[in-house]
Write a structure and sequence with these properties.
Distance between the termini: 80 Å
Oligomer: single chain
Order of helices and strands: HEHEEEEEEEEEEEEEEEEEEEEEEEEEEE
Shape: elongated
Strand content: over 45%
Radius of gyration: 22 Å
Helix content: under 10%
Amino acid sequence: MKKCAIVSLVAVCLAGCRIFSGGFTKPIRYSGHGDDLQQVIDDAAPGATIVCDTEAQFELSAPLVIKKPMALKGLNARLPRGLGRTSLIVVDAVGVALTDIELHGNYDSVDQQDRASLIKIRKGNFRLERCKFYDSSKDGVEISPESGGTDIVGGIIRDIEAFRIGRDAVSISGGNQGLRVRDVTVENVSLSKGYLRGAVEVSDGTDNIRVRGVYAEDCPYAIDVQDHRGRSAANTNIDIEDVTAVNCRHIIRTANSPRGHAKLRLRNFTGKNCEAPVKISNTKDITIDGLKVLNHQSQKYPPISLENCRGVHLENVSLETAHFADQPVRLKNCADVDLTGIELFY
């Protein structure tokens, strides 16, 4: 009896793995023209993997909505010109993987009031890897709980290339209703040309977010950690490292209001030709370890600005500034700030 019970338990566990991991099911090869892809997704069993031909590009006028744990691989899709307020993929299930995806938006034909992210992820335990985003009117990918939903917990974003993005290549946001996004890792994101925003946004109620390996060129910023007022929750336990910004206004900015933002750790930041490289506000417990500012030419903004911050430690900071050698750090209403780890070049 005990042996039979063990065998039954193993069978149940394997069935669960087949349902939720997608690792035990045969991939579904999709070779259609895109018009029936939503039906294929709807008909697939939980845990299925749908594989598209990366060479075949589909024009989609409505988003592909995923409502079960599954994987979608190799999709190459674009939005029609002039079609606003429409994403290409919406994730409404826990445990979805999107890999080897290429998506094209329509930034040049849509007003910003009608903007939409190429991908919306509204549930946790997601995986997004090896994706390319082009010309989105809003974000490349937006991770944010749906209105009236629950916190998003768990996710991996890795190896993202973005080009000509209206807002952020990667946006992580708890939203404006007090919800949070927690335990998300972001690795290897590059953005070439951000029209209104930058490479990675962490905002409006986030906790335990790890960002590593970001490159931004010709953007307002590489990294943004902020809130949009209202009922937005605080951003806490944010670790960001290995960030390079070239010809951007900021390497990092925090457009924050006072609401408990805390524990911001920045490591190995480099900015070249940036107007106001580091601008941080309304945050407690900040560490900057490894900051290199090159060719800072601004006569208006210093390399580092801190406002309403508490408990700031800087080390391994090297600043090349043409006009702020006497005052490279601007402080306003700050306390417990350690500026001893700064080396100046001019």
